[in-house]
């Protein structure tokens, strides 16, 4: 049964400062929304509790892509279509537009934002594995100022993030220093489009004379949050790519992940597929 629309209040201030002040004055009352794609699903299903909502949609202070010689900063209000259409992101950070292309339909990509995808904190979200592989940082803002933390520290537990009640996610920053890295991203779902992932892996690695000298692996649907597979990375670092190394990495991945059984898949299937995806990537090195 659809939720009763009269039970919600929506305000849409025209500046970031005004929104931050609203959150500071009533941090437990107003819920920020951006594209609203997740909210509309809950509304249509009758699962959205009565709320006071503050809109971030199309706010210029949050919808931007800034390129410097060393990094690219993406505003939290940037849509997936914006990301897919940006030439430098497409050429240098190809995992991210690929992940963006998985996010629902074209209509969803026109409306959904990267910040909303992150803050919604689904373990199966499409953009987090790529952001984890790229070792992104996130900047959080409030009336007290800003702070920047590694994205790998943003998700604390299921649907719980490092955001304080009066904070907003402002931007995501990724390094452009990726010369010599090979990249990999793969999502396994029920369909090729408009499907929530059963499991997804994104990875980057650089080798020197057959030895892995740098590697980062991000995953979806393998833990209660999007996850950086640190133990798996450590098992591979400074190792040659051999059958024995790959076998050890598969074991490390299975040891550090905790997939679940749910309506979309089983824990056993997710673990087996994730290990296979890891091996598929390592074979390319």
Concise overview:
This protein is of the alpha+beta class and 285 residues long. Helices cover 33% and strands 26% of the residues.
Explained architecture:
- The chain has 285 residues and is an alpha+beta fold.
- The protein has three domains: 5-55, Uridine Diphospho-n-acetylenolpyruvylglucosamine Reductase, domain 2; 65-174, Uridine Diphospho-n-acetylenolpyruvylglucosamine Reductase, domain 3; 182-283, Enolase-like, domain 1, CATH 3.30.390.
- Helix content is 33%, strand content 26%.
- It contains eleven helices and 14 strands.
- It has helices spanning 16-25, 37-45, 80-85, 87-92, 95-101, 106-111, 114-119, 128-133, 230-236, 243-256, 267-283, and strands at 9-11, 30-33, 52-55, 65-67, 71-75, 137-142, 145-150, 155-157, 160-161, 168-175, 182-188, 199-208, 211-220, 227-228.
- The strands form four sheets. Strands 4-5-10-6-7 form a five-stranded antiparallel β-sheet. A four-stranded antiparallel β-sheet has the order 11-12-13-14, with helices on both faces. A three-stranded parallel β-sheet has the order 1-3-2, covered by helices on one side.
- Strand 6 and strand 7 form a beta hairpin.
- Helix 9 packs antiparallel against helix 10 and helix 10 packs antiparallel against helix 11 (267-283).
- The longest helix has 17 residues, at 267-283.
- It is globular.
- It starts with 8 loop residues before the first strand and ends with a helix.
- The mean pLDDT is 93.
- InterPro entries: CO_DH_flav_C (IPR005107), CO_DH_flav_C_dom_sf (IPR036683), Diverse_Substr_Oxidored (IPR051312), FAD-bd_PCMH (IPR016166), FAD-bd_PCMH-like_sf (IPR036318), FAD-bd_PCMH_sub1 (IPR016167), FAD-bd_PCMH_sub2 (IPR016169), Mopterin_DH_FAD-bd (IPR002346).
- One of its GO terms (molecular function) is oxidoreductase activity.
- This is CO/xanthine dehydrogenase FAD-binding subunit.
- Residues 1-179 form the FAD-binding PCMH-type domain.
- Keywords: FAD, Flavoprotein, Oxidoreductase.
């Amino acid at each position: 049964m659809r939720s009763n629309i009269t039970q919600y209040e929506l305000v849409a201030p025209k500046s970031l400062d005004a929104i931050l002040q609203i959150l500071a004055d009533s941090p437990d009352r107003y819920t920020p929304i951006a594209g609203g794609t997740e909210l509309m699903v809950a509304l249509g299903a009758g699962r959205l509790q009565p709320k006071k909502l503050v809109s971030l949609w199309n706010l210029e202070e949050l919808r931007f892509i800034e390129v410097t010689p060393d990094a690219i900063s993406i505003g939290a209000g940037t849509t997936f279509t914006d990301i897919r259409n940006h030439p430098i992101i497409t050429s240098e950070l190809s995992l991210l537009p690929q992940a963006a292309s998985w996010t629902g339909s074209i209509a969803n990509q026109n409306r959904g934002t990267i910040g909303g995808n992150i803050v919604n904190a689904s373990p199966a979200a499409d953009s987090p594995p790529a952001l984890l592989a790229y070792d992104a940082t996130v900047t959080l803002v409030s009336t007290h100022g800003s702070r920047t933390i590694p994205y790998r520290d943003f998700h604390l537990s299921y649907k719980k993030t490092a955001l304080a009640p009066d904070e907003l996610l402002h931007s995501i920053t990724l390094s452009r220093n990726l010369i010599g890295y090979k990249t990999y991203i793969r999502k396994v779902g029920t369909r090729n489009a408009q499907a929530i992932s059963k499991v997804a892996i994104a990875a980057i690695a650089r080798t020197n004379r057959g030895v892995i000298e740098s590697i980062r692996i991000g995953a979806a649907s393998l833990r209660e949050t999007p996850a950086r597979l640190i133990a798996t990375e450590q098992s591979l670092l400074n190792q040659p790519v051999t059958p024995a190394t790959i076998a050890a990495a598969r074991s490390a991945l299975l040891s550090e992940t905790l997939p679940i059984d749910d309506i979309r898949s089983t824990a056993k299937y997710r673990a087996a597929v994730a290990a296979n995806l890891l091996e598929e990537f390592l074979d390319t090195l």
